[in-house]
Design a protein that fits this description.
Length: 412
Amino acid sequence: MAASIFAAVPRAPPVAVFKLTADFREDGDARKVNLGVGAYRTDEGQPWVLPVVKKVEQMITNDNSLNHEYLPILGLPEFRANASRIALGDDSPAIKENRIGSVQALGGTGALRIGAEFLRRWYNGNNNTATPVYVSSPTWENHNSVFMDAGFKDIRTYHYWDAAKRGLDLQGLLNDMEKAPEFSIFILHACAHNPTGTDPTPDQWKQIAAVMKRRFLFPFFDSAYQGFASGSLDKDAWAVRYFVSEGFEFFCAQSFSKNFGLYNERVGNLTVVGKDADNVQRVLSQMEKIVRTTWSNPPSQGARIVATTLSSPQLFAEWKDNVKTMADRVLLMRSNLRSRLESLGTPGTWNHITEQIGMFSFTGLNPKQVEYMIKEKHIYLMASGRINMCGLTTKNLDYVAQSIHEAVTKIQ
């Protein structure tokens, strides 16, 4: 029998966070805790379908006017308009001046990929794969892969995390921006930085924007956690809106996985802010061609849920309340974990746990300590020491805190 034509294909390494979840599922220990995958969990450790989402799903089911015809290539118009509106704000000058556009995408990853494909083909008038793309160190692992697979050859990092002080390395970040070639592309986390949970303050964002404007650097925001980070849509969108006020052209990839709990519906949006309407329309015309050869037309269910919710003042208010419920639980778990570690006398400082924001906390645990947590304590977390705060519950909090204490005390 002839050898397979695929015999030379190497096996790719598994995606780390999903491998971690698979290992967790196979673990038979009753004490096991999953602090890996980035998904919200209730205090019972279960996924949560937002009440407003259940209500809207029922409304959609009962709407006999709906069918399964193709959506436009760029997506459901009311979804796109409302998604961009919550990112930029009701009173956004960019919206008032009709210089924004958007593309419905397959989650935040799809929005990043469409933006990356467009930039590789058309950014600054060039089909230039050599344009440097900067991602924070550390960043969400998919950022590198998305831009590499889109054809960019020069992926660089900029300073972000200061391990010694467990906070933002602002000076290192600004220095890297000063040294970056003009017109470089910078991937910025709009809020709830993944994996560190450390965000610039408004004043620090102003310093970042000033350097980017002077150096002609292009901002590409990744907004995966609006509302979910602080509980306030406006607060979590502050940086994006400030860049609008400063006259930037930029892209903003939005995900509705976390703040709507629509993980498997893959609901994303790419907002384009340009100098004028004509520029934006030409950009969208090229993005339409990219979408046509990528997924052709987006799915409707998740987009309808979001659009219906954001279009109704009553449902919108209910959704914001649901989002605050999730954000408040995360904030509570942060406070409780820190207090337990401090009461145990765990070596080191732990104020960074409550100073960070969003779903993730960069604990400061080193790889050997993480290995101890997984193998000896059956607590699953990323090798970087990142934990999902939603994996903590009132039932496992003491066990997790005691395990961290042991790991830090026993292993240097």
